[in-house]
Amino acid sequence: MARVVRIQAFGGPENLKLEQVDVAAPGPGQARIRQTAIGLNYLDVYHRTGLYPIGDLPAPVGSEGAGVVEAVGEGVTSLKAGDRVAYVGGPLGAYADERLYPADRLVPLPDWVSDEQAASLMMQGLTAQYLLRRTFPVQSGQTILFHAAAGGVGLIACQWAKSLGARVLGTVGSKEKADLAVAHGCDVPIFYREANWVQHVRQETDEKGVPVVYDSVGKDTIKGSFECLAPLGTLVVFGQSSGPVPPIELGQLAKGSFFLTRPSIAAYMAARSDLMQAAAEVFELVKNGTIKVNIAQRFKLEDAAEAHRALEARKTTGSTLLIP
């Protein structure tokens, strides 16, 4: 029997309940994984609350994990029992100590990446990869604004953008988070709860604005994010931790001929070739020391509700793991 956390009703963290289930033998194209680390992401909150539809209840939850292959199904030749693997996206159900998963979406892990690092990197590291390398390719000499700079994606993105030669402005919610962001490559921490945070960004750019804003906060920052853009700038909205983004008038873009995009990891990693290339790039940056993985919180699988409460209360920094 495997332990699985499922959503029993849409709403608060109390609706996450631990159950015992049987995990079947892998079918054609599948692998059965014994999980050793599970990544916690704001996407899980969106699923739990019903903001993002996930089908009938009770429903599985979780999109990221790492572990060891226990068995493979018919037709699987790229993996074998004992291989260390990680994944992101695909069928929900990462909140479990064992599960089935499509073998062609599993990424083999190199020796220098631990299971815990992998469970922290697949969602957050690959998100940073497509944001900085594909959605708006950051160039040396640019000044960029990254919201939630002390979060899981933020800490990776600050290090990566700095290595690309960018000057990084990063919004944070506390002095502690500011210090953490600076330690991971953020040049100028900006407190977005202060009324003049947009003015601070404008001052740091000599009133020119930035060519790109990466915004995962959403409702609380979206208006200011537009105001921080330089003409022809790009606003990348890749999350909404403060709440859904209100409707955006087309005229807001016309003010500076702005570009607006709402990317998703599912679209950017849909092709296996893109998934493998992005993962290889992230893992290589870990190997050469460009990215240092910050795992700041660990919760037991049965304490998933507590982990969600901490995440929503903004009490977390860096990456948070569930440990089966």
TrEMBL record:
Source taxon at top rank: Bacteria
Alphabetized UniProt keyword annotations: NADP, Oxidoreductase
Transmembrane helix keyword on record: no
Entries under PROSITE patterns matching the protein: QOR_ZETA_CRYSTAL
SUPFAM superfamilies: GroES-like, NAD(P)-binding Rossmann-fold domains
Gene3D superfamilies: Medium-chain alcohol dehydrogenases, catalytic domain (3.90.180.10), NAD(P)-binding Rossmann-like Domain (3.40.50.720)
NCBIfam families: PRK10754.1
Annotated protein name in UniProt: Quinone oxidoreductase
